[in-house]
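quick one, 386 residues, struct below
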Amino acid sequence: MYRIGQEEIDAVARVIESQELFKVNDGTLQECLNVQLKMEKTFGVKHALFMTSGHAALTSALIAKGIGPGDQVIVPAYTYIATAMAVVAAGAIPVIAEIDKTMTLDVADVERKITPHTKAILPVHIQGFPCNMDAIMEVADKHDLFALEDSCQADGGSYRGKRLGSIGHAGALSFNAFKLISCGEGGALLTDDSALYERALIYHDSSAVAFFGDQLDNVKTKPFCGNEYRMHEIPAAIMRVQLSRMDGILKDLRQNKKILMDALASDFVFAPSHDIEGDCGTTLALQFDTAEEAVAFTEKLSFRTTIPINTGKHIYKHWTPIMEKRGALHPLMDPFGMEANKAIIPDYHENMCPKTLDILARTVYIAINPDMSKSDAENMICEIRK
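---
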């Protein structure tokens, strides 16, 4: 999160003063409803469902699509563990594919790993870097696969003029404290698929939608047992203000990233982009010939940088519960032990995606701040060049 202040404080105060904190109420504020309407307009989708996290949104989407035991879902080797855990939460099996120099899914490797059991692709716009959504949707259409965008690190980003999360059959956003906009913790499911939206609505609220207000008016899906990812009015009030800030934050991030790139273009190799204009601008990725060069570079800088190979649970080999095939506490609920999945579990091992590990070890991230001053940028450029 980059910017928060009096507007969010005032929004929260209005909710508390109304004494209507529950999502469904008879008050005038209706923050949960209004933030969803604002998301639909902002992201250009028919349906937005505000919930507790990006992981909740991913899980709800997969289950709403009917994905479960006997199914495989392709995920990138470089993403936060929550992406793969959402697949397991649905009862399905994650298949791990390589990334390329853009830091996003290698579409050629995705195609190599499609089997008769593959039901979905889960592209991740990591660090706000857009995936090659044209190629991903082409593969999805060719093989009749569900394309679910993990846009949890790319709130507001775009690809060829369309917001990330609105291009696939569904998309997930995250609003936790580490994201571009935030309400502390939260997420959203985006989709144009009305049937999927209905099922996700029921699942994310453990069918409680049947008991509160008129949420099931015009819903054709019969209620079924689900989970509890329902949000309330306070985070919704914060998020409504944060959504108003989003495009201004993106503009300043992109402008500051461009300043750095223009100044350093003759001296460094940048990670290529599928759409540099749609890139969120949160991160400048420099790529070196060797891991040793990357480490040596970071050691000479006074400001903090990140080599992504060192980011723990963002790298498949550190997804301990996945790698060790422990998908649930109760053995009968564990997808890795289910009879329907017996023949479709990959041979997970530490070196299964060598290309990904190599790229991550040779890349250095420099964080961009939207409020970076001209002198801050000049000092950073000077130190990097030196």
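The CA atoms of residues 77 and 90 lie 19 Å apart.
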